[in-house]
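Quick one: structure for this chain?
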Amino acid sequence: REAYAAAMERDLLARAGDCRDDTVDTVYFGGGTPTCLPPEVLCGLLATVLSRYNVAENAEITTECNPGTVTPGDLVKLREGGFNRLSMGLQSAQAGELRALGRLHSFADFAETFRAARAAGFANLSADVMFGIPHQTAESFADTLEKLCDLRPDHVSAYALTVEEGTPFGRRGAAALNLPDEEAVRGMYLGMVEFLGKRGLAQYEISNFARAGYESRHNLKYWMLEEYAGFGPGAYSDFGGVRYGYTRDLDGYIAGRLDLAESEHISPQEREMEYIMLRLRTARGIDIREFENRFRQRFTPLAAILESCTAHGLARQTETGWCLTPRGFLVSNRIIGDLQEELNREKAQRLARAAQGDYRVVE
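Got it. Here's what it folds into:
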């Protein structure tokens, strides 16, 4: 642990010059359970960031945290060290569901850690829950949400379980896991959107809900196509027009090697696709004027697809453009795929017109 922290500090110091002209307004310790490290180590790494980077005075500074990995005293140290937001992993309030997920904590453990974080001075607390997990029912998921909301979190992230090949769940197979069926999962999602909205947690992205003013500023950077710099093995960045990621080589990282797993310059065409995909993940949706000004691309052909979605309750028009409804979020991959296909078709037509000497961009 100490060797990893030392390597991270070297990394932060070595790359500080790349960010000398940038203001850092969010810092996020995540990608696992950072609180497995002692609070003194986490605070030391944050101190390096604060001293060597241009961090805004009102920056959002988050660490992920699982119950059982911190004491009340640890939480006080983290708050005094500069962290002002915690993202805590609950997943479920049901003992059997937690066991099925391999989680070591109980809901009582979570509640105790949550209250200790409030007492330590954390005014911005987020919790993660999961749906579509083994043995879960609509009733048990509703009970999880009820118990969580009684603690008054400021933010909730809710993710459906995805069973990946090569994982312990993947090797067992869906039939052996006792997973709820697709229709049940759909009902859990739509019921959650309605329930959290009534409890003051408005949906602002497919999987994220917040009280007004408590949306995750860090995650919004991803969805708004803003720049971010990642540190550590396996970390990804989108910085200076380049998207790059480092290998998942912990031993190499500790030894001072920082090898790229991939690196690519993002073309304007790719950014168009990403804009559509990421913005339609948000309740804010696509801003037509911003899209046309940024990409010099007509939105009209895409609007026709979204108008068709509106007729089926999957999308709606906003003051500035279009967004998906909660029902639309459930089939967002298909809608986004249709939009990207239409965008490609439109580009092919423009190229054909240009080849014939017609250089009009906007008709």
